[in-house]
beta-fructofuranosidase (Olea europaea subsp. europaea), 657 residues
Amino acid sequence: MANNSSRAPLRDLERATSYTPIPDQPPTFIPAGNRRSKKLFASIFFSSVFFISLILLFINQQPESQTNVNGSNQEKSTFTPISPAARSTPPSRGVSQAVSEKTFRAIGVDENVSYPWTNAMLSWQRTAYHFQPEHNWMNDPNGPLFHKGWYHLFYQYNPYSAVWGNITWGHAVSKDLIHWLYLPFAMVPDHWYDFNGVWTGSATILPDGQIVMLYTGNTVDGVQVQCLAYPANLSDPLLLDWIKYPGNPVLVPPPGIGVEDFRDPTTAWLSPDRDRWRITIGSKVNQTGISIVYETVDFKSYELLDGVLHGVPGTGMWECVDFYPISMTEANWRDTSVNIRDIKHVLKASVKDLTSDYYALGTYNPFENKWTPDDQELDVGIGLRYDYGKYYASKTFFDQNKKRRILWGWIKETDNEADDIMKGWASVQSIPRTIVFDKKTGSNILQWPVTEVEDLRSEVVEFNSVKLGPGSIAPLEVDTASQLDIVALFDIDKDAVEETVEADVVYNCPTNGGAANRGKLGPFGIVVLADETLSEGTPIYFYAIKGASGEVETHFCADELRSSKAPEVDRVVYGSKVPVLNGEKYSLRSLVDHSIVESFAQGGRTVITSRIYPTKVINGASRVFLFNNATGVNVTASVKIWKMDSANIRHFPFDRL
Ligand code: DQQ
């Protein structure tokens, strides 16, 4: 049984008592059914909808001007902001007419209004080279690891429905992180301690090659406990069978920690004397998000260390904490246990209240069990995010195969559950990203798609030194633009920037009106997943501002306001600041995969993932544009666009073994 005695109680937590686990008892496993789907289907039937101004919607979203690449239309915006009237919606044709539909419960959007989705649209929206299961719901990536030539990905999965529930560990393997083979489930909720879900966990590979998997079990009573599992047969490269330790749970919530606030153990790292392992687990005390640390020798009994690794008031529950070293000097990563002089430590928390993954760089003092951020103002939960779009519950692992740290993240849907049930699947995993320290800025990490994704590149087209005058937009000749890898470099007219005394002063992607809002030095960038008339499309762009001090500050944004004709799906503008250093061009890379666009600015300093639901660009109608919607500066763009093949994602061919 777990040893929860701490060396000293956590100061914050002294008053409360400990949770007492249920004594071991025979599990009564009741197969979980699709408990929520009936209710959700009913809610759709009761949606009353009206056909209001489809035509108006089109008219209001037409760009005012579409000039050639040297366009001189300086006054008009190339993008017309969507007026509230343009958000009026057509009626649902409804399930009775065999047409799927979506409703997104966004603020200000009428829940009873739905778009007449067609099956063609919905099936086109499924991605072609991102990992997703064949059917049903998926959320967090779990326990990624490399073993005997195979990358293993486990994931939170509902075998019965396309909404969250019945959480089981799905399992898939790959030789290259791109093409995947589905395997049988690794773990199902079949014991009292994980009856309500085999929740998120992490793998640790011990020096002798053993694999330890720690995960959160949600007990029959809804208490979060930590559990141990290990492969039945280490010599099996596929790691098909997993054994849950008979003494589970190995940890229960300690005094002062809520029974529902104790989850997602990390990969273990070694203590300074290298004879004990440490893990950290996310939690909260009142509204302070915290990460607590345990020590163990055998992963069966644990000791809670004094204090907390770190905590940030006001950030609420920390889920899926990740903690790892990052080398300031070498591109290739050290493994999770390294702690030497040229190392910083990244602490990441998935901040539940904001559904966003925040990280910070800092210094780890293993003797005091403390991590301190380099910059208090950029602390976890209030500073930098891995991704400013749809990206959550991420997890890294050290790839001992190629000596690099790789990041996985869950891209969730931004429509609603009823729709997910109808289309039969929900969520995608991001393209895995390598993480390195940004030596140039010294204050952030760089994320970049693993090089293996480049094997999917096929035909390439290049556009060199395209001149974009203020207010111009240039269509690029790329056919079937729904699976692309785009790399674009932008030069802006330096004299014009210098002569500009002041441009905007403050800017914020989410609240400044998207690509339709024109300033002197922005926006400029690309529009992807656009139809020919630009009535639908997603601009990915830079927006520079210049304050009285003369400093130029750049923002990187993704404008989803016109990403879909469906008014009720999530249509927002994402983004944040991005450092553009002296001598650097503005650079972006976008991986376009039907309904996902993962965009990386300045080599991965700022990243935005868009989860969008185009309606007009399906089946070959998708186009790419360059644009410059700034009023006071010329922009020169050079772009390379590769078509991307589909990844091969299928069941493991056991019959051919
Ligand atoms: N998802 C898991 C939890 C985790 C949450 C449950 C984050 O373990 O905290 O599916 O998305």
The chain has five helices and 37 strands.
